[in-house]
Amino acid sequence: MAGKGSADLEQEVLSQGLCTSCGACVNICPYIKVVRDKVAVIEPCGLTEGKCYDFCPRTPTDIAALDKSVFGKTRSDFSLGPYISIEMAQAKNSEVRCRAQYGGVVSALMKYALDTGEIKNAVLTRPFDGAMMPASVVVDESSQSLECAGSNYISSATLAKMNEAAKQGKDSIGLVGIPCQVLALRKMQAAKHETGAKGVKLVIGLFCTWALSYKGFSEFLRGKVDLSQVKRIDIPPPPANIMVVETAAGDIRFSLDEVRKFIKPACGVCYDMTSEFADISVGMVEGIEDWNTLIVRTPQGKRFIDKAKKAGIINTKPLEKTRLEHLKEASSLKKKRAVDAIQKKTNDKKNLLYLRLSAQEKKKFL
Ligand SMILES: Cc1cc2nc3c(=O)[nH]c(=O)nc-3n(C[C@H](O)[C@H](O)[C@H](O)COP(=O)(O)OP(=O)(O)OC[C@H]3O[C@@H](n4cnc5c(N)ncnc54)[C@H](O)[C@@H]3O)c2cc1C
Ligand code: SF4
Ligand code: SF4
Questions:
Q1: Residue range of the domain that includes 27
Q2: Residues 203-261 pLDDT 10s
Q3: Using CA positions, which residue lies closest to atom 1 of ligand 2?
Q4: Whether residue 208 has its Cβ less than 6 Å from ligand 3
Q5: How many domains does the chain have?
Protein backbone atom coordinates (compact mmCIF):
# COMPACT_ATOMS: atom_id res chain seq x y z
CA MET A 1 0.00 0.00 0.00
CA ALA A 2 2.96 2.32 0.52
CA GLY A 3 4.10 4.71 -2.15
CA LYS A 4 0.89 6.52 -3.03
CA GLY A 5 -0.56 9.87 -2.04
CA SER A 6 -3.36 12.34 -2.65
CA ALA A 7 -2.86 12.45 -6.45
CA ASP A 8 -3.48 8.69 -6.51
CA LEU A 9 -6.46 9.07 -4.16
CA GLU A 10 -7.89 11.58 -6.61
CA GLN A 11 -7.25 9.34 -9.60
CA GLU A 12 -8.26 5.98 -8.14
CA VAL A 13 -11.09 6.95 -5.77
CA LEU A 14 -12.51 10.46 -6.04
CA SER A 15 -12.60 10.80 -9.82
CA GLN A 16 -13.98 7.24 -10.13
CA GLY A 17 -17.06 7.97 -8.00
CA LEU A 18 -15.82 5.55 -5.33
CA CYS A 19 -15.63 7.99 -2.40
CA THR A 20 -17.99 7.01 0.43
CA SER A 21 -17.52 10.37 2.25
CA CYS A 22 -16.21 8.53 5.30
CA GLY A 23 -13.92 11.46 6.17
CA ALA A 24 -10.80 9.39 6.98
CA CYS A 25 -8.68 11.56 4.66
CA VAL A 26 -10.08 14.85 6.03
CA ASN A 27 -8.49 16.88 8.85
CA ILE A 28 -5.20 15.05 8.52
CA CYS A 29 -3.73 17.44 5.94
CA PRO A 30 -4.61 20.94 4.75
CA TYR A 31 -5.27 19.94 1.14
CA ILE A 32 -8.34 17.70 1.45
CA LYS A 33 -11.68 19.24 2.34
CA VAL A 34 -15.25 18.09 2.83
CA VAL A 35 -18.35 20.15 2.17
CA ARG A 36 -21.49 18.32 3.24
CA ASP A 37 -20.94 14.84 1.74
CA LYS A 38 -18.52 15.92 -1.03
CA VAL A 39 -14.81 15.36 -0.49
CA ALA A 40 -12.16 16.99 -2.71
CA VAL A 41 -8.38 17.22 -2.97
CA ILE A 42 -7.97 20.97 -3.41
CA GLU A 43 -4.25 20.75 -4.22
CA PRO A 44 -2.13 17.62 -4.72
CA CYS A 45 0.57 17.67 -2.02
CA GLY A 46 3.20 15.61 -3.87
CA LEU A 47 3.73 13.19 -0.97
CA THR A 48 4.14 9.61 -2.10
CA GLU A 49 3.29 7.96 1.22
CA GLY A 50 0.06 9.70 2.06
CA LYS A 51 -1.99 8.75 5.08
CA CYS A 52 -5.04 9.70 3.00
CA TYR A 53 -4.35 6.93 0.51
CA ASP A 54 -3.53 4.32 3.13
CA PHE A 55 -6.60 5.08 5.29
CA CYS A 56 -9.19 5.18 2.49
CA PRO A 57 -11.68 2.27 2.48
CA ARG A 58 -11.61 2.29 -1.34
CA THR A 59 -7.85 1.86 -1.81
CA PRO A 60 -6.46 -1.72 -1.79
CA THR A 61 -7.87 -3.51 1.26
CA ASP A 62 -6.80 -7.03 2.17
CA ILE A 63 -9.80 -8.44 4.05
CA ALA A 64 -7.89 -11.41 5.54
CA ALA A 65 -5.03 -9.18 6.75
CA LEU A 66 -7.52 -6.81 8.38
CA ASP A 67 -9.30 -9.78 10.00
CA LYS A 68 -5.98 -10.78 11.54
CA SER A 69 -5.29 -7.26 12.73
CA VAL A 70 -8.73 -6.77 14.34
CA PHE A 71 -9.65 -10.31 15.43
CA GLY A 72 -6.29 -12.09 15.54
CA LYS A 73 -7.60 -14.70 13.04
CA THR A 74 -9.21 -14.92 9.63
CA ARG A 75 -12.93 -15.41 9.07
CA SER A 76 -14.74 -18.69 8.75
CA ASP A 77 -18.13 -17.09 8.04
CA PHE A 78 -17.89 -15.39 4.66
CA SER A 79 -21.38 -13.85 4.80
CA LEU A 80 -21.19 -11.93 8.06
CA GLY A 81 -17.47 -11.84 8.90
CA PRO A 82 -16.05 -12.85 12.30
CA TYR A 83 -18.43 -12.89 15.25
CA ILE A 84 -18.83 -14.35 18.72
CA SER A 85 -22.62 -14.18 19.07
CA ILE A 86 -25.76 -12.96 17.29
CA GLU A 87 -28.93 -12.11 19.22
CA MET A 88 -31.92 -9.82 19.22
CA ALA A 89 -31.60 -6.88 21.62
CA GLN A 90 -33.54 -3.90 22.86
CA ALA A 91 -32.77 -0.92 25.13
CA LYS A 92 -34.50 -1.45 28.48
CA ASN A 93 -35.18 2.26 28.91
CA SER A 94 -38.44 3.12 27.11
CA GLU A 95 -37.43 6.79 26.68
CA VAL A 96 -34.36 5.66 24.73
CA ARG A 97 -36.49 3.32 22.60
CA CYS A 98 -38.96 6.11 21.89
CA ARG A 99 -36.26 8.40 20.50
CA ALA A 100 -34.33 5.70 18.68
CA GLN A 101 -34.57 4.34 15.15
CA TYR A 102 -35.45 0.79 16.21
CA GLY A 103 -34.67 -0.87 19.55
CA GLY A 104 -32.39 1.91 20.81
CA VAL A 105 -29.47 -0.45 21.48
CA VAL A 106 -26.90 1.90 19.94
CA SER A 107 -27.97 4.94 21.94
CA ALA A 108 -28.35 2.94 25.15
CA LEU A 109 -24.87 1.40 24.78
CA MET A 110 -23.17 4.71 23.97
CA LYS A 111 -24.90 6.38 26.92
CA TYR A 112 -23.81 3.52 29.19
CA ALA A 113 -20.22 3.62 27.86
CA LEU A 114 -19.99 7.34 28.72
CA ASP A 115 -21.74 6.89 32.10
CA THR A 116 -19.36 4.16 33.22
CA GLY A 117 -16.13 5.75 31.93
CA GLU A 118 -15.68 2.94 29.38
CA ILE A 119 -15.05 5.86 27.00
CA LYS A 120 -14.59 9.59 27.62
CA ASN A 121 -15.81 10.86 24.24
CA ALA A 122 -18.26 9.57 21.65
CA VAL A 123 -18.20 10.40 17.94
CA LEU A 124 -21.84 10.27 16.86
CA THR A 125 -24.04 11.68 14.12
CA ARG A 126 -26.91 14.03 14.77
CA PRO A 127 -29.50 12.78 12.32
CA PHE A 128 -31.30 16.01 11.39
CA ASP A 129 -30.24 19.64 11.47
CA GLY A 130 -33.27 21.21 9.82
CA ALA A 131 -31.78 20.93 6.34
CA MET A 132 -31.48 17.14 6.17
CA MET A 133 -27.67 16.96 6.22
CA PRO A 134 -26.47 14.91 9.20
CA ALA A 135 -23.77 16.42 11.39
CA SER A 136 -21.06 14.39 13.09
CA VAL A 137 -20.40 15.50 16.66
CA VAL A 138 -18.20 14.63 19.62
CA VAL A 139 -20.06 14.35 22.90
CA ASP A 140 -18.68 13.78 26.37
CA GLU A 141 -21.91 13.71 28.38
CA SER A 142 -24.20 10.73 28.24
CA SER A 143 -27.37 12.84 27.93
CA GLN A 144 -26.01 14.23 24.64
CA SER A 145 -25.83 10.75 23.14
CA LEU A 146 -29.63 10.54 23.18
CA GLU A 147 -29.82 13.70 21.05
CA CYS A 148 -28.12 11.66 18.32
CA ALA A 149 -30.69 8.84 18.29
CA GLY A 150 -32.27 8.04 14.92
CA SER A 151 -30.86 7.32 11.45
CA ASN A 152 -30.09 9.69 8.62
CA TYR A 153 -29.66 7.94 5.28
CA ILE A 154 -27.18 10.54 3.99
CA SER A 155 -23.56 9.73 4.83
CA SER A 156 -21.68 12.08 7.06
CA ALA A 157 -17.88 12.42 7.26
CA THR A 158 -17.74 10.89 10.74
CA LEU A 159 -14.01 10.14 10.61
CA ALA A 160 -13.21 13.79 9.81
CA LYS A 161 -14.79 14.59 13.18
CA MET A 162 -12.81 11.81 14.83
CA ASN A 163 -9.58 13.22 13.29
CA GLU A 164 -10.48 16.69 14.58
CA ALA A 165 -11.21 15.34 18.07
CA ALA A 166 -7.88 13.52 18.16
CA LYS A 167 -6.08 16.71 17.11
CA GLN A 168 -7.70 18.44 20.07
CA GLY A 169 -6.16 15.79 22.33
CA LYS A 170 -9.36 13.81 22.91
CA ASP A 171 -8.76 10.12 23.51
CA SER A 172 -10.66 7.13 24.89
CA ILE A 173 -13.16 7.55 22.08
CA GLY A 174 -16.25 5.50 21.21
CA LEU A 175 -17.48 5.72 17.63
CA VAL A 176 -20.72 4.82 15.86
CA GLY A 177 -20.31 4.40 12.11
CA ILE A 178 -21.59 2.73 8.98
CA PRO A 179 -19.51 -0.12 7.46
CA CYS A 180 -17.32 2.01 5.16
CA GLN A 181 -16.41 4.23 8.13
CA VAL A 182 -15.65 1.27 10.36
CA LEU A 183 -13.48 -0.27 7.63
CA ALA A 184 -11.52 2.99 7.22
CA LEU A 185 -11.13 3.31 11.00
CA ARG A 186 -9.63 -0.20 11.21
CA LYS A 187 -7.27 0.59 8.30
CA MET A 188 -6.17 3.68 10.24
CA GLN A 189 -5.59 1.63 13.39
CA ALA A 190 -3.61 -0.99 11.46
CA ALA A 191 -1.48 1.57 9.58
CA LYS A 192 2.08 2.47 10.47
CA HIS A 193 1.19 6.18 10.59
CA GLU A 194 0.49 8.20 13.73
CA THR A 195 -3.28 8.62 13.95
CA GLY A 196 -5.93 9.56 16.47
CA ALA A 197 -7.79 6.38 15.45
CA LYS A 198 -5.51 4.54 17.84
CA GLY A 199 -7.38 6.31 20.67
CA VAL A 200 -10.70 4.74 19.61
CA LYS A 201 -11.63 2.11 22.21
CA LEU A 202 -15.14 1.07 21.25
CA VAL A 203 -16.55 0.74 17.73
CA ILE A 204 -20.26 0.24 17.19
CA GLY A 205 -21.00 -0.43 13.53
CA LEU A 206 -24.43 -0.03 11.93
CA PHE A 207 -25.81 -2.28 9.21
CA CYS A 208 -26.03 -0.44 5.88
CA THR A 209 -27.29 -1.33 2.41
CA TRP A 210 -26.82 2.12 0.90
CA ALA A 211 -26.70 5.84 1.67
CA LEU A 212 -28.08 8.73 -0.38
CA SER A 213 -26.27 11.71 -1.84
CA TYR A 214 -27.16 14.97 -0.10
CA LYS A 215 -27.68 17.10 -3.19
CA GLY A 216 -30.03 14.84 -5.11
CA PHE A 217 -32.04 13.58 -2.16
CA SER A 218 -32.47 16.90 -0.35
CA GLU A 219 -33.57 18.59 -3.59
CA PHE A 220 -36.06 15.78 -4.21
CA LEU A 221 -37.45 16.07 -0.68
CA ARG A 222 -37.45 19.88 -0.61
CA GLY A 223 -40.01 19.85 -3.40
CA LYS A 224 -42.34 17.72 -1.29
CA VAL A 225 -41.88 18.61 2.42
CA ASP A 226 -40.58 21.39 4.64
CA LEU A 227 -37.16 19.93 5.48
CA SER A 228 -37.08 21.61 8.88
CA GLN A 229 -40.16 19.55 9.86
CA VAL A 230 -38.59 16.14 9.21
CA LYS A 231 -38.48 14.12 12.44
CA ARG A 232 -37.59 10.62 11.32
CA ILE A 233 -37.00 8.71 8.10
CA ASP A 234 -37.51 4.96 7.92
CA ILE A 235 -37.09 2.31 5.27
CA PRO A 236 -39.33 -0.61 6.25
CA PRO A 237 -37.97 -4.02 5.26
CA PRO A 238 -38.81 -5.65 1.91
CA PRO A 239 -41.23 -6.26 0.30
CA ALA A 240 -42.62 -2.80 1.35
CA ASN A 241 -40.36 -0.94 -1.13
CA ILE A 242 -41.15 2.41 0.49
CA MET A 243 -39.49 5.24 2.39
CA VAL A 244 -41.50 6.83 5.19
CA VAL A 245 -40.72 10.46 6.05
CA GLU A 246 -42.24 11.38 9.40
CA THR A 247 -42.93 15.12 9.79
CA ALA A 248 -44.75 17.28 12.33
CA ALA A 249 -47.64 17.38 9.85
CA GLY A 250 -47.84 13.59 9.43
CA ASP A 251 -46.15 10.80 7.47
CA ILE A 252 -45.29 10.98 3.79
CA ARG A 253 -44.53 7.81 1.82
CA PHE A 254 -42.46 7.46 -1.33
CA SER A 255 -41.76 4.45 -3.47
CA LEU A 256 -38.13 3.43 -3.02
CA ASP A 257 -37.91 3.41 -6.81
CA GLU A 258 -38.14 7.22 -6.68
CA VAL A 259 -35.32 7.41 -4.13
CA ARG A 260 -32.88 4.81 -5.47
CA LYS A 261 -31.54 7.16 -8.13
CA PHE A 262 -29.94 9.20 -5.32
CA ILE A 263 -27.92 6.27 -3.91
CA LYS A 264 -24.23 7.20 -3.77
CA PRO A 265 -22.33 5.50 -6.64
CA ALA A 266 -19.76 4.28 -4.08
CA CYS A 267 -22.43 2.10 -2.43
CA GLY A 268 -22.72 -0.05 -5.56
CA VAL A 269 -19.24 -1.50 -4.94
CA CYS A 270 -19.59 -1.83 -1.17
CA TYR A 271 -18.87 -5.34 0.10
CA ASP A 272 -19.98 -4.97 3.73
CA MET A 273 -23.57 -4.83 4.99
CA THR A 274 -23.05 -5.54 8.68
CA SER A 275 -19.95 -3.51 9.72
CA GLU A 276 -17.79 -6.60 9.78
CA PHE A 277 -14.84 -4.92 11.50
CA ALA A 278 -16.74 -3.36 14.42
CA ASP A 279 -16.55 -4.52 18.04
CA ILE A 280 -20.35 -4.70 17.99
CA SER A 281 -22.67 -4.43 14.97
CA VAL A 282 -26.31 -3.33 15.19
CA GLY A 283 -29.13 -3.38 12.65
CA MET A 284 -32.86 -3.84 12.43
CA VAL A 285 -34.84 -7.04 12.88
CA GLU A 286 -37.05 -7.32 9.84
CA GLY A 287 -40.70 -6.97 10.77
CA ILE A 288 -40.07 -6.19 14.48
CA GLU A 289 -39.78 -2.43 14.84
CA ASP A 290 -38.55 -2.04 18.39
CA TRP A 291 -35.81 -4.67 18.45
CA ASN A 292 -32.32 -4.74 16.97
CA THR A 293 -30.08 -7.46 15.63
CA LEU A 294 -26.91 -7.42 17.76
CA ILE A 295 -23.67 -9.01 16.53
CA VAL A 296 -20.85 -9.21 19.05
CA ARG A 297 -17.55 -9.60 17.24
CA THR A 298 -14.50 -8.91 19.43
CA PRO A 299 -13.60 -9.96 23.00
CA GLN A 300 -13.71 -6.23 23.96
CA GLY A 301 -17.21 -6.03 22.50
CA LYS A 302 -18.28 -9.14 24.41
CA ARG A 303 -16.91 -7.86 27.71
CA PHE A 304 -18.79 -4.59 27.25
CA ILE A 305 -22.07 -6.25 26.21
CA ASP A 306 -21.89 -8.71 29.14
CA LYS A 307 -21.42 -5.73 31.47
CA ALA A 308 -24.34 -3.84 29.87
CA LYS A 309 -26.61 -6.89 30.16
CA LYS A 310 -25.68 -7.36 33.82
CA ALA A 311 -26.39 -3.69 34.50
CA GLY A 312 -29.84 -4.03 32.90
CA ILE A 313 -29.12 -1.64 30.02
CA ILE A 314 -30.31 -3.98 27.27
CA ASN A 315 -32.58 -7.01 27.02
CA THR A 316 -31.61 -9.80 24.67
CA LYS A 317 -33.24 -12.92 23.27
CA PRO A 318 -32.23 -15.49 20.65
CA LEU A 319 -32.50 -14.60 16.97
CA GLU A 320 -34.55 -17.31 15.26
CA LYS A 321 -32.67 -19.55 12.85
CA THR A 322 -34.74 -18.42 9.86
CA ARG A 323 -33.93 -14.76 10.59
CA LEU A 324 -30.22 -15.57 10.89
CA GLU A 325 -30.30 -17.43 7.59
CA HIS A 326 -32.09 -14.49 5.99
CA LEU A 327 -29.50 -12.04 7.36
CA LYS A 328 -26.69 -14.16 5.91
CA GLU A 329 -28.46 -14.30 2.57
CA ALA A 330 -28.96 -10.52 2.45
CA SER A 331 -25.33 -9.89 3.34
CA SER A 332 -24.05 -12.41 0.77
CA LEU A 333 -26.28 -10.84 -1.85
CA LYS A 334 -24.73 -7.43 -1.19
CA LYS A 335 -21.26 -8.94 -1.60
CA LYS A 336 -22.20 -10.66 -4.87
CA ARG A 337 -23.75 -7.45 -6.20
CA ALA A 338 -20.60 -5.49 -5.28
CA VAL A 339 -18.28 -7.99 -6.96
CA ASP A 340 -20.46 -8.02 -10.10
CA ALA A 341 -20.54 -4.20 -10.22
CA ILE A 342 -16.76 -4.01 -9.79
CA GLN A 343 -16.13 -6.56 -12.54
CA LYS A 344 -18.47 -4.65 -14.81
CA LYS A 345 -16.65 -1.41 -14.02
CA THR A 346 -13.17 -2.81 -14.63
CA ASN A 347 -14.27 -5.05 -17.48
CA ASP A 348 -11.81 -7.55 -16.03
CA LYS A 349 -12.91 -10.51 -13.90
CA LYS A 350 -9.59 -10.45 -12.01
CA ASN A 351 -9.50 -6.72 -11.27
CA LEU A 352 -11.56 -6.16 -8.10
CA LEU A 353 -10.43 -2.53 -7.62
CA TYR A 354 -9.95 -2.06 -3.88
CA LEU A 355 -10.97 -5.57 -2.77
CA ARG A 356 -8.27 -8.10 -1.96
CA LEU A 357 -10.06 -11.39 -1.21
CA SER A 358 -8.69 -14.74 -0.07
CA ALA A 359 -8.93 -17.65 -2.51
CA GLN A 360 -11.77 -19.15 -0.44
CA GLU A 361 -13.71 -15.90 -0.43
CA LYS A 362 -13.22 -15.48 -4.17
CA LYS A 363 -14.61 -18.97 -4.69
CA LYS A 364 -17.79 -17.98 -2.86
CA PHE A 365 -18.46 -14.60 -4.44
CA LEU A 366 -16.79 -14.53 -7.87
C1 LIG B 1 -27.02 5.25 6.01
C2 LIG B 1 -27.63 4.15 6.85
C3 LIG B 1 -28.12 2.99 6.24
C4 LIG B 1 -28.65 1.96 7.02
N5 LIG B 1 -29.11 0.83 6.40
C6 LIG B 1 -29.56 -0.21 7.14
C7 LIG B 1 -29.98 -1.43 6.53
O8 LIG B 1 -29.98 -1.56 5.30
N9 LIG B 1 -30.40 -2.46 7.34
C10 LIG B 1 -30.42 -2.35 8.70
O11 LIG B 1 -30.79 -3.31 9.39
N12 LIG B 1 -30.01 -1.21 9.30
C13 LIG B 1 -29.58 -0.15 8.57
N14 LIG B 1 -29.14 1.00 9.18
C15 LIG B 1 -29.05 1.01 10.66
C16 LIG B 1 -30.37 1.36 11.34
O17 LIG B 1 -30.96 2.46 10.70
C18 LIG B 1 -30.13 1.70 12.82
O19 LIG B 1 -29.16 2.72 12.95
C20 LIG B 1 -29.62 0.52 13.63
O21 LIG B 1 -30.51 -0.56 13.52
C22 LIG B 1 -29.52 0.88 15.12
O23 LIG B 1 -30.80 1.09 15.64
P24 LIG B 1 -30.97 1.76 17.06
O25 LIG B 1 -32.42 1.88 17.38
O26 LIG B 1 -30.10 1.06 18.04
O27 LIG B 1 -30.36 3.20 16.76
P28 LIG B 1 -30.36 4.54 17.62
O29 LIG B 1 -30.31 4.21 19.07
O30 LIG B 1 -31.42 5.42 17.11
O31 LIG B 1 -28.94 5.13 17.23
C32 LIG B 1 -28.65 5.48 15.91
C33 LIG B 1 -27.19 5.85 15.81
O34 LIG B 1 -26.94 6.05 14.42
C35 LIG B 1 -26.03 7.11 14.27
N36 LIG B 1 -26.27 7.69 12.93
C37 LIG B 1 -27.39 8.27 12.47
N38 LIG B 1 -27.22 8.63 11.18
C39 LIG B 1 -25.97 8.27 10.83
C40 LIG B 1 -25.20 8.39 9.65
N41 LIG B 1 -25.66 8.94 8.55
N42 LIG B 1 -23.93 7.92 9.66
C43 LIG B 1 -23.40 7.35 10.78
N44 LIG B 1 -24.09 7.21 11.93
C45 LIG B 1 -25.36 7.66 11.95
C46 LIG B 1 -26.30 8.06 15.42
O47 LIG B 1 -25.10 8.64 15.83
C48 LIG B 1 -26.83 7.13 16.53
O49 LIG B 1 -25.81 6.85 17.43
C50 LIG B 1 -28.68 2.08 8.43
C51 LIG B 1 -28.19 3.25 9.04
C52 LIG B 1 -27.68 4.29 8.27
C53 LIG B 1 -27.15 5.53 8.98
S1 SF4 C 1 -13.72 7.22 0.91
FE2 SF4 C 1 -13.12 8.33 2.76
S3 SF4 C 1 -10.87 8.30 2.75
FE4 SF4 C 1 -11.55 7.73 0.69
S5 SF4 C 1 -11.54 9.64 -0.47
FE6 SF4 C 1 -13.61 9.40 0.35
S7 SF4 C 1 -13.61 10.48 2.33
FE8 SF4 C 1 -11.47 10.21 1.71
S1 SF4 D 1 -23.37 1.01 1.38
FE2 SF4 D 1 -21.26 0.89 1.99
S3 SF4 D 1 -20.28 2.65 1.00
FE4 SF4 D 1 -22.48 3.04 0.98
S5 SF4 D 1 -22.82 4.23 2.83
FE6 SF4 D 1 -23.23 2.07 3.35
S7 SF4 D 1 -21.28 1.36 4.15
FE8 SF4 D 1 -20.84 3.26 3.07
A1: 6-213+263-365
A2: 999 999 999 999 999 999 998 899 989 989 999 988 899 999 999 889 999 999 999 99
A3: 19
A4: yes
A5: 2
Q: Measured in angstroms, how far is the CA atom of residue 245 from the centroid of ligand 2?
A: 29
How far, in Å, from the CA of 203 to the mean position of ligand 3?
Answer: 16
pLDDT in tens, 298-330: 999 999 999 999 999 999 999 999 999 999 999
Ligand in closest contact with the CA of 270: 3
pTM of the predicted protein model: 0.98
Residue 177 and residue 106 in one domain: yes
Sheet with 314-318, edge to edge strand ranges: 135-139, 121-126, 173-177, 200-206, 280-285, 288-296, 85-91, 314-318
Q: How far is the CA of 198 from the centre of ligand 2 (A)?
A: 18
Residue 1 lies in a domain: no
Of 206, 209, 256, 293, the residue with max ligand 1 atoms within 8 A of its CB, to mutate for a pocket test, comes to 206
Buried b (16+ CB within 10 A) or exposed e, 60-87: ebbbbebbeebbeeebeebbbbbbeebb
